[in-house]
Amino acid sequence: MEGFNIGGKSLKSRLLVGTGKFASYDLMKQAIEGCGTQVVTMALRRVNLDHKEDNILEYIPKDTILLPNTSGARNAEEAIRIARLSRAMGCGDWVKIEVISDQKYLLPDNEETVKATEVLAKEGFIVLPYMNPDLMIAKRLESVGAAAVMPLGSPIGTNKGLQTKEMIRILIEEIKVPIIVDAGIGKPSQAAEAMEMGAEAVLVNTAIATAQNPVKMAKAFELAVRAGRLAFNGVTAPQAKVARASSPLTGFLHEGEA
Amino acid sequence: MSFYDTYLEYENFDTEGFLKEVKEPDVLGIIKKNKLNHHDFLALLSPAAANCLEEMAQRAQELSLQHFGKTVLLYTPLYLSNYCVNRCAYCSYNIDHDIKRKKLTYDEIEKEAQIIAETGLKHILLLTGESRIETPVSYLVEAVKIMKKYFDSIAIEIDPLEKEDYQRLIEAGVDGLTIYQEVYDEEVYKQVHLAGPKRNYHFRLDAPERACEANIHNVNIGALLGLNKWQHEAFMTGMHANYLQNKYNDVELSISLPRIRPHVGGFRDVYPVTDQDLVQVLLAFRIYLPYVAITMSTRERGSLRDHLIPLGVTKMSAGVTTEVGGHSDSDKGDSQFEISDTRSVEEMRKAILNKGYQPIFKNWMAI
């Protein structure tokens, strides 16, 4: 499958994986390795360098790109501080901006996300902002240097799929940097749907981590993402509202014909 | 406007009459709802709901997986002092009790911190009895400065403070507040808090809100189950959490379900709370407030705590001693109450893994 580009890096896998909520780090590692993902996101606030068994970095394959996220940040200032700390801890230049000030629905704060993205992009970070799909905000994120834009399909952890489908479709049409659908994807079929629409990639966590068999589910997502991308490239056949054969309004013209 | 206004709305509500009217089909219908109202929540505490515990458990597990996954955060309390100026009928620290009093020096605090840190824990809860003279905010600020060398997350469980004092502690490095109302019923509150500043019901009730206004990161509340009818106390606790969450969106809320434990003193006027009651309360909290963390302390025995993990518990204490200086085994002060689950951090880590859950040592860091 053809690759895509984020921040100058060419990626083959279009499935990004999140690391929260797994029953163990061993299981998480197996899921990551099994699905061939090249980008793995983890909450920097959870990175525990002092404790080998609790240190998530020990379980992420070395050839994977780390995408530390700013989970826990309630405003731009906190997100910026976490990103800088992440770089100082040796977690690289990639960062997923998560600014969430609503602990109930965990919806992102778009305004603060733009502010953090602007500052960090100027500092040379590869910034992937998680956002509520909104065209004007996505354009601003793009203009201030986001390497990709990550709209939510539905709220984090809900597994409700592409509830924001129409907004994501507009972002895919209008935004030049990659659109990566993040949050809410609950089933491989929903990931495939996002890919069929033309998303460059998807990020999945809860649906894999809390599946009965996370390793199998990660593999299923990999296949679904590939299938969806193939379908996008193959350009799906157009839909018709009525069967072509029937002509309920003009059929009378043919009455009496053999 | 404070939570007291909400409390007043329900002060004369016929809770028992309402609970009697709830039928099992009502409960099964409520479980399926996306958003529960106050009465739905109360219905989950009814006798009819007690007959639907398995259905409630299935729903609670589903919601816990969605919001928290298969993870349990580990922390431990560190008792700094058992000096107290209050006369609480149910507490060993009661000023009238002849227990061995002790306050840790800064050197002793550091020694305790070093020993706890060796277990790998990164979250610590600092506790004191309530004495502004023995443990003023300045003492706590110094203790927090020492803790910062060893721990990523520092919470406090101390006497209620003014907003400015919470701000001082937050600036020093505190990110969490635990404060139990003990009992929400105002009359019962007066009966069990015989003397001392803790008798001020309102100052305690509004303490979590003052901490929220001071921009604290997380708040843990609860009622001491056993001081009053558990249905009433669980209902008010849930309502309080809901009030705080709606008003302070960015604060992470937790609820604890402490049951009264053996202690020094003669208070025996306890309303029984069985294991089944405790499970019902836990499930009702999870279904009503799927996004709040739920803490289960070592007051409960190990086997029960293990069974509660898949039902929605997200935080557990481990390696606990409630004695002042209890970790470093030096000259200890007497404990606040007897714990039940005496497992070490390593034993708890293994127990959580055995349940198919991931023990988390670090979930937060001061930024």
Automatic annotation (TrEMBL), chain B:
GO molecular function terms attached to this record:
4 iron, 4 sulfur cluster binding; catalytic activity; iron ion binding
Which cofactors does this protein require? Answer: [4Fe-4S] cluster
Q: What PROSITE patterns would the database entry show?
A: RADICAL_SAM
- Domain (Radical SAM core): residue spans on this chain: 70-299
Q: Which GO terms describe its biological process?
A: thiamine biosynthetic process
What Pfam families is this protein classified in?
BATS (PF06968), Radical_SAM (PF04055)
Q: Which InterPro entries match?
A: Aldolase_TIM, BATS_dom, rSAM, rSAM_sf, ThiH, ThiH/NoCL/HydG-like
Instruction: Supply the alphabetized keyword list.
Output: 4Fe-4S, Iron, Iron-sulfur, Metal-binding, S-adenosyl-L-methionine
Q: From which domain of life does this come?
A: Bacteria
Q: Which CDD domains match?
A: Radical_SAM (cd01335)
Q: Which PANTHER family match?
A: 2-IMINOACETATE SYNTHASE
Name of this chain's protein: Thiazole biosynthesis protein ThiH
